[in-house]
Specification:
Blueprint (H helix, E strand, L loop, with lengths): L1 E2 L3 E4 L2 E6 L5 E9 L4 E8 L5 E4 L2 E4 L4 E8 L14 E9 L22 E11 L18 H12 L4 H39 L2
Parallel strand pairs: 3-10
Antiparallel strand pairs: 1-2, 2-4, 4-8, 5-7, 5-9, 6-8, 9-10
Length: 202
């Protein structure tokens, strides 16, 4: 947060999620901490790349103004993800009742010892989709099969939500448990049949 004579500006740096061939935006908030009407103007060193709405305005006493800064899409990734673009926020006290339509460039000229407050903000690129670390493959649990692992992977890769995935995994566990019980039952029946056969044919 940047504290100035007239306006409190937040944040102190403009951080844009960066993704090739996609626009991105970030918000800026100007808070008037005086009992005066304060006019502001937002400038940038690269006006063709950014769209600022609103780029001029009047902040009423002890009020706030929200600004949206949109960065145009890049065709390629800049070297080292570094950006040299900067923004300048100028602010000046204006007469009571001044509206946005009354704002002119002359208001921000430093003449006749008029006080014009200025703040500079730099631009920072943030990877929109940072690579996540790939965990080492866990050893298969005893009794699990390659088919089970692949099934779990398919469920995780699906478009199901986490609660839906949990429900599917729970049903699969119940199915596996029933299959194991069926196998045990079949083994017991086979064993019982063999014992009965020996009893009738000693």
């Amino acid at each position: 947060m940047t504290m100035g004579e007239l306006l409190r500006i937040q944040p102190s740096e403009l951080k844009f999620p960066f993704e090739v061939r996609k626009q991105s935006s970030c918000a800026m908030q100007l808070a008037n901490k005086t009992d005066q009407y304060v006019a502001f103007k937002v400038k940038t060193t690269n006006p063709k790349r950014y769209c600022v709405r609103p780029n001029v305005g009047v902040v009423l006493p002890y009020s706030m103004c929200n600004i949206t800064v949109t960065m145009q899409a890049h065709k390629e990734v800049p070297a080292d993800m570094q950006c040299r673009d900067k923004f300048l926020v100028q602010s000046v006290i204006v007469p009571y009742g001044t509206t946005n339509k009354d704002i002119s460039q002359e208001m921000f000229n430093r003449e006749n010892e008029k006080f014009v407050d200025e703040f500079k903000l730099r631009v920072i690129y943030i990877p929109a989709n940072p690579p996540s670390p790939v965990p080492e493959e866990e050893e298969e649990e005893e009794g699990s099969s390659p088919g089970t692992s692949s099934a779990l992977e398919e469920i995780k890769k699906s478009s199901l939500s986490e609660p839906e995935q949990s429900a599917v995994l729970k049903l699969k566990d119940e199915k596996d448990f029933v299959n194991i019980q069926n196998d045990k039952l079949i083994e017991e029946l086979v064993c019982f049949g063999l014992c009965a056969l020996h009893m009738w044919n000693p």
